[in-house]
Amino acid sequence: MTTSALLALYAVAIIAAAAGWLAAGFVAVGVGAGREPGSRERWLVVGLAAAGALATVGAAVATVALAARGWWFVGEKAVLGLPLAAIGAVVGAVGLVRWLRGDRGPLGRVLLLAAGYAATAAALTTWLLGYPVQQAAAFVLVAALLLAVGLTWALIAGRGRRAVTGFAGLLVVLLVGGVGWSWLADTAAPSLEAAGHAHAGGDAAAIGAATAAASGTRSVDELRTPTDGAGPVRAFELVAAQRSVTLASGEQVDVWSFGDALPGPELRVTEGDLVDVTLRNDDIDAGVTLHWHGVDVPNGEDGVAGVTQDAIMPGGEFRTRFVADVPGTYWYHTHQASSEGVRMGLYGMLVVEPADEAVADVDLALPVHTIGGEVLLGAADGAQVQEVEPGSTVRLRVANTDRPPLRVLLDGAPFVVAAVDGRDLPGGDEVEDRAVRLAAGARADLVFTMPDAPMRLAVDASRASTLDLVPPGAAASARSFDGGDAGPDVTDAPELDLLAYGDGPAPDLGPFTAEAEMVLDRMPRFVGGVPAYAYTVDGRVFPHIAPIVVREGDVVKLTIANRGFDVHPMHVHGHHVLVLSRDGVPASGAPLWLDTVDVRPGEVWEVALVADNPGIWMDHCHDLEHAAQGMMMSLAYEGVVTPYDHDAHGNRPE
Ligand code: C2O
Ligand code: CU
Question: Which has the closest alpha carbon to 187: 446, 483, 532?
């Protein structure tokens, strides 16, 4: 059974346990003390209590099975939830026996209900406390349970108004206090920098480079590309503006974009170039920045509003430079309120061509992006046809710029996956009829030799948006795909597992000098002070998730476990991570360096990160809506501080 199925099973069992005991208790209370229960009532109470007890056993079994998958999935259940449910079951059994024996005192009924409360508290450990358990929250939960039992006893035993209001009052105070504490914890001082460098807040200039230097720290403002950097300069200008764009299908959409069309201008440079980009914001009121997704730029060029710079507001300008030192496929997008900005169209491709290697005869950058209900494959929605001379080499650089994962299928010839996330993947065999899955934000370079028959690139995001490559003269779209002209079925095609693809020596990174865990979940939390069913890391939301603190030179082992039921494409800025294992199975193909790790529900990934790029780096889910709902934290180098404020000057770092 999958870990995700076990998590679901546990949830069903613990809720059933609570429901069984509570129902048994309420039926018993309904009978009252004044009369003997009928045999139907007796059997009903026995049946419900038995169901509660059985479900508790089910929850215990699921917990044991989950523990084998990793402590991240059960920590709070094993330590607090199950013990509560088990004590509850014993107490409930005692209550049931007393009640059946005809003891008409309040105790039997109170104990039956107490079992229900205990199972409810057990269920809440998973949804409210999560992993790792915060002690204060655990205390509130247990205290609330005891007070609820007290209140029930006062009511059933008829202890009078004072006892009832006493228990009820304490319970209310406790719950209000608990919610208040949680609000405080989720709105307290942010933690983005390494400990010991509390954020100064306020004016960006207040703690500038001078202050940083005086205290032996470095400001992100100092971590920029030197202006006299080597390499031929390639200058570009991007103008962010609201525009109305007509898609290939004729559909007219209002977008925010970096150029006159969607996607933004394709920036194509050569390895070693100094890329020098000026960004202007015409009229994007929400503000805009430029983040180079997958390029491990110096921290000050990373384009995160409120962390490495301020958001560029209408009329403003920002100049960014970096050396394009690793050939590959990258993309750029706004990192100011990006859940809205990227969706609206503030994205484009960056291709770094190798300096001393031939470029493919046909080399296309194809971001897949949904806008206005249409799916753009590159620059067009709908069916596209391009003529390609048979025998030419073709490189399709596909990028997923949407929120959900993307499946890509290349039909008509064998191909290799030559690179992923801007890193070459050596030794990959040719594959056919295999879908390639791209996490949100990820890229894959598909390389093949053009056959003398048509080929098709299809994506699961849309059946309508396809790219046919056809030999010159062949009638457009004339290719009849197996199973009719609907073309290959992307959804059903088996998936290529990149962890077992390619071949090459594992790099020797040396021993680990630091370790960190990220436990992904979904829980009720306050995001920016507003209650939300948030996306959490280690039970917390941005900006209160403790940063992963590293020193320059560290080799960090990162474990990412997904307890939730959503896919989380975790993206780390400024670094690529080397995949070590997934669900305990070591990666066996070519060294797989990713900037976006596709952590599916129930999965545990181990990756290695070499801390060689000092800064304060965002580390977040690239389902940008999840990032906006809390799932965003930092990888913070000791001694690096930021003068920018994530919560002022209109900055919204997500
Ligand atoms: Cu592509 Cu932090 O983003
Ligand atoms: Cu996510």
Answer: 532
